[in-house]
Specification:
InterPro entries: AAA+_ATPase, ABC_AA/LPS_Transport, ABC_transp_permease, ABC_transporter-like_ATP-bd, ABC_transporter-like_CS, BCA_ABC_TP_C, LivM-like, P-loop_NTPase. With about 600 residues, the chain is of the alpha/beta class. The chain folds into two domains: about 1-235, no CATH class; about 335-590, Rossmann fold. Helices cover about 55% and strands about 10% of the residues. It contains 24 helices and 14 strands. The strands form four sheets. Strands 10-11-12-7-13-14 form a six-stranded mixed sheet, sandwiched between helices. A four-stranded antiparallel sheet has the order 6-5-8-9, covered by helices on one side. The longest helix is centred in the middle third of the chain and has 27 residues, at about 200-225.
Length: about 600
């Protein structure tokens, strides 16, 4: 049913306008709303989905408007060709600005957008060629053949058509592979990077996309108003556009339209009624701001969330079937896959990992154990490229890696989970797992917007569904990931790691929070992976669990590798006993108890 929302709304407004029910003033107001909605739509993707706050979108509207004004007035270019030029010029500027801006974080990012937003405003107002603060007038109307589009109702058909198309393209973008990558950045970048996503590249794509929508809005504005000047493209306008996106519902496509309508209608009504009530003065600015603050206080997630509720999970035509993806060739059993050689990591004066050397062979389960603070998670992060070693080497298939990054390790076939679950809470469970299969797809932003990635999406969905079945999560596949229990989140991370089609899986405390039956199923799955030739490196504090599974154990203590061997050897190793229990082996043999069987320990596992 939701697929008919846009065309029905488009036809309804169009019918009202053409039939004469709506006044010319109302039609002009709807034109303004539709044009502003384009800018707000870009901000929904940029700010609401991508998590990048921008106060400078009005500058990109100005770039689009001034480009078409200059080309049509001074050079006589067709407005339709000027549209392409506006998009290219604005997109090019956004690419250059974004290459620097999107790398900023925290409060520096919005401050950066304010800076270049103000710069463009003064640039437009001080260049003689652009008419300074008087701007450029006499912009020709849009034409279809020999017919000039001058009537407001005719123009409404165009603006609504453009808005309708932009909504479809944006929706297609967000539901595809690139869209998942964009949405994954809201809750941090670690998980996205671990499965091949390059955050700076994805952010730049979104930044340019939002700027292009603003350029189209500027092109429509210029030919609707038939003149341009710097006023509508300043930082105040940029703040209003951001407010539209936030008020309607940052992250909600239809929230952009709702927010634009509310801001424009509220401002218009206040300007009409307040002079009659309070007399002359700029009271509308004060009351306008107060009204918006009250609206946001009552609906912090945006008004569209109050109207429509939680967004449904993206639906697919099939969860399985004949669609398959290519798989990596499995190396022979006991082939060294991941090898750490004399790895060392120093944080200031603290040696977190010191001279750690071990290998993880194909078709084997290796356990990495040690008391709290032993350096296990740091070793994981060094092995997956999250941290850079102070010295030593990380090797894959006997080849030392010169540059180590999470994306490169994912490309090689290294999947991982995290000590504290790194999941996208607003995405469904199946979409979280589909993120793990990011590198098994190839569709880019353009292909997604045009809807040409559907077959590939079905393949990735089938992969994700299979991994959910293997981990027993298929019943909650369409639930928001943020609603799962801790044990389910652990299994979700395992499913996501398997969706990568890994040669080796690094699991950081996978059994933490699992019930007995869930641990039994996880153990069964890990044995299956071993049988399939997948290597497993596991950090785990449940000694019964890890010792019943591991073919080989590595023990760390204060960053040092103190022992390695099979479970029986590790259980009775004096250095391990001392590390865990704080006493010699003999004193525990005297009372008939050895560690890892319920005895209280000096430095806990939890």
């Amino acid at each position: 049913m939701k697929r008919f929302v846009e065309p029905v709304a488009f036809l309804l407004v169009l019918a009202l306008a053409v039939s004469g029910v709506l006044s010319s003033f109302t039609v002009a107001l709807i034109n303004d709303i539709a044009i502003a909605s384009l800018v707000a739509l870009g901000l929904v993707v940029l700010t609401g989905v991508g998590g990048m706050t921008s106060f400078g979108q009005a500058a990109f509207v100005g770039l689009g408007a001034y480009t078409t004004a200059v080309l049509t007035v001074r050079y006589g270019l067709s407005p339709w060709l000027a549209l392409a030029a506006s998009i290219v010029v604005t997109g090019g500027c956004a690419l250059l600005i974004g290459a620097v801006t999107v790398r900023l974080s925290g409060h520096y990012l919005p401050l950066g957008t304010i800076a270049w937003g103000i710069s463009f405003y003064y640039l437009f107002g001080n260049i003689e060629w652009l008419g300074r603060h008087d701007g450029i007038s006499g912009i020709p109307p849009l034409t279809l053949g020999n017919h000039a589009i001058t009537g407001q109702k005719e123009y409404l058909i165009l603006t609504l058509g453009v808005l309708f198309t932009a909504i479809l393209l944006t929706r297609n973008l967000l539901r595809g592979r690139v869209g998942r990558a964009v949405r994954s950045l809201r809750d941090g970048t670690h998980a996205a990077e671990a499965f091949g996503v390059h955050p700076s590249t994805v952010k730049l794509i979104v930044f340019v996309f939002a700027a292009m929508l603003a350029a189209i809005a500027g092109w429509l504005y210029a030919h609707f108003q038939r003149s341009v000047s710097p006023g509508p493209f300043g930082i105040t306008a940029g703040t209003e556009y951001l407010l539209m996106a936030v008020l309607g519902g940052a992250g909600r496509i239809y929230g952009a339209v709702l927010g634009a309508a509310l801001v424009i209608l509220l401002r218009d009504q206040l300007q009409s009624w307040l002079p009659h009530l309070l007399g002359a003065g700029n009271y509308e600015t004060i009351i306008f701001g107060a009204a918006l603050v009250l609206l946001l206080r009552g609906a912090s997630d945006g008004l569209w969330a109050k109207i429509a509720g939680r967004e449904a999970a993206i639906a697919f035509d099939s969860a399985s079937g004949v669609l398959t993806a290519s798989r990596k060739e499995r190396p022979a059993k006991d082939t060294k896959l991941l090898e750490l050689r004399h790895l060392k990591k120093v944080f200031g004066g603290l040696i977190a990992v010191n001279d750690v050397t071990f290998a993880v062979p194909a078709g084997r389960i290796v356990g990495l154990i040690g008391p709290n603070g032993a350096g296990k998670s740091t070793t994981f992060n060094l092995a997956t490229g999250v941290l850079t070693p102070t010295s030593g080497e990380v090797c894959f298939c006997d080849e030392a890696l010169k540059t180590i990054s999470p994306q490169e390790m994912a490309r090689l076939g290294v999947g991982r989970s995290f000590q504290h679950p790194e999941i996208m809470t607003d995405m469904s469970v199946v979409e979280n797992v589909m993120l793990g299969a990011h590198l098994r797809g190839h569709a880019g932003a353009v292909k997604a917007m045009l809807g040409l990635d559907r077959k590939e999406e079905l393949v990735l969905h089938a992969i994700a569904w299979r991994m959910l079945q293997r981990t027993g999560l298929e019943k909650v596949a369409l639930s928001p990931a943020g609603t799962l229990s801790l044990g389910q989140l652990r299994l979700l991370e395992v499913a996501r790691a398997l969706a990568l089609d890994p040669l080796i899986v690094l699991l950081d405390e996978p059994a933490a929070g699992l019930r007995v039956c869930e641990k039994r199923e996880l153990a069964r799955l890990l044995r299956e992976l071993r049988q399939e030739g997948v290597a497993v490196l596991m950090v785990e504090h449940d000694m019964d669990f890890v010792m019943s599974l591991a073919d080989h154990l590595i023990v760390l203590d204060f960053g040092n590798q103190i022992a390695e061997g099979d479970a029986n050897g590790i259980r009775s190793n004096p250095r391990v006993l001392d590390a865990y229990l704080g006493g010699p082996r003999e004193q525990f043999l005297a009372i008939g108890k050895l560690p890892f069987g319920g005895l209280r320990i000096r430095r806990g596992f939890a």
